Amino acid sequence: MGKEPMTPSARAQAAIELLDEVIVAAREGGAAADTLIARYFRTRRYAGSGDRRAVRELVFAAIRRAANRPASGRAALLGLPDVAALFDGSPHGPAAVDPDEPVARAGIAPTWLLKRFDPVVERDEMPALLERAPLDLRVNRLKIARDEVEIEGAVPTPHSPFGLRLPEGTKVEQDGRVEIQDEGSQLIALACAAAPGMVVVDLCAGAGGKTLALAAVMANQGRLIACDTDRGRLSRLSPRLERAGVTIVESRLLDPGREAQALDDLSGTADLVLVDAPCSGSGTWRRNPETRWRITPDRLTALTALQARLLDLAAALVKPSGALVYAVCSLLAEEGRDQAEALTARSSLVPEPLSMAAGRPAGPGLLLSPARDGTDGFFIARWRRPC
């Protein structure tokens, strides 16, 4: 006998409970919505696959609709059309609606944040920031050519020569031949123009998505140092390297605030340094729409200060004739063009044009956006140290 499906009202109540958790996590820096949803259903085995899918859709529809962090999960869900009838006070369902209770305001993002977007981003582009993102893969050319990958429905990405775009919901086995990676991230790796035999530093490597892409471009030849201050993220890199057949990567865990000491042996030696810096994530709202509830003016100030410090750390590693590439998954001017212009003004590094089919000029760099390029939102800039 199969599981009895939840009633529509019970699904609404589950969505409210999850939205309450997402709101708290956004306020207090907790787990992402996807993680919270997975945890929620691990302890509720009575929910079938259809129930889980329906609840998830309600949760993300409510998140995408609400510009600001809502007062409660009820306020978030009540903003959706045609859900008020589910607040019927039935068993396992939400209590009836009080005519005076709050309803979350609809919009793209908080007004103060929208004012910080780069001036090249036009108003008609904003809705695309909250559309569902495509599923992109990067083909690992160390193991296989793109035209040899056989996945039903896969088509080449428009800009990356290593990318494939898959139909929504496609199940992917990341077996070392392919890795899930947005096309914009693939283009950042290509903008680095890494080559076999180089000394390359990935200063904010995280779990290593761009490290793997760089290693493939380098044909697994040279020296590639993957650095991060987060032990948990960096620990996820090792099995990915083994799966991908990459042997040139050295992982280096950095002590926050004391990165310069840990990088001293690399000073002035790197052919290339990539700074994929921590940022607001305003370019990734398609994937994590609740992140726009997390950012505050104080948080943004702290992030821009960190970005500037990381750029200065990276600049010290670049050898004469070497290159520095800066990227953020953000569409905010102060995280993109303003940072690039400030580094140009305070250093001897010389901006270089980026040779990419995607993106449009934004100060010394290029800006990618979901509406114009079909990628996540990114700012990318590149400099060369004079000989």
In short:
The protein has helices at residues 8-28, 33-42, 49-65, 73-78, 111-114, 183-191, 209-217, 231-235, 237-244, 259-262, 297-317, 337-346, 370-373, and strands at 135-139, 155-156, 163-166, 178-180, 199-202, 223-228, 249-253, 270-276, 318-328, 350-351, 360-362, 365-368, 378-384.
Keywords:
alpha/beta; Rossmann fold; 13 helices; 16% strand
Describe the model.
This protein is an alpha/beta fold. It folds into two domains: 8-106; 183-384, Vaccinia Virus protein VP39 (Rossmann fold, 3-Layer(aba) Sandwich), CATH 3.40.50.150. The chain has 13 helices and 13 strands. Strands 5, 6, 7, 8, 9, 10, 11, 12 and 13 form a nine-stranded mixed beta sheet that branches. α1 (8-28) crosses α2, α1 (8-28) packs across α3 (49-65) and α6 packs across α7. The chain is globular, with a radius of gyration of 22 Å. The relative contact order is 0.11.
Strands, helices and their partners?
Layout: H1 8-28, H2 33-42, H3 49-65, H4 73-78, H5 111-114, E1 135-139, E2 155-156, E3 163-166, E4 178-180, H6 183-191, E5 199-202, H7 209-217, E6 223-228, H8 231-235, H9 237-244, E7 249-253, H10 259-262, E8 270-276, H11 297-317, E9 318-328, H12 337-346, E10 350-351, E11 360-362, E12 365-368, H13 370-373, E13 378-384
Parallel strand pairs: 5-6, 5-8, 6-7, 8-9
Antiparallel strand pairs: 1-3, 1-4, 2-3, 9-13, 10-13, 11-12, 12-13
Helix pairs in contact: 1-2, 1-3, 6-7
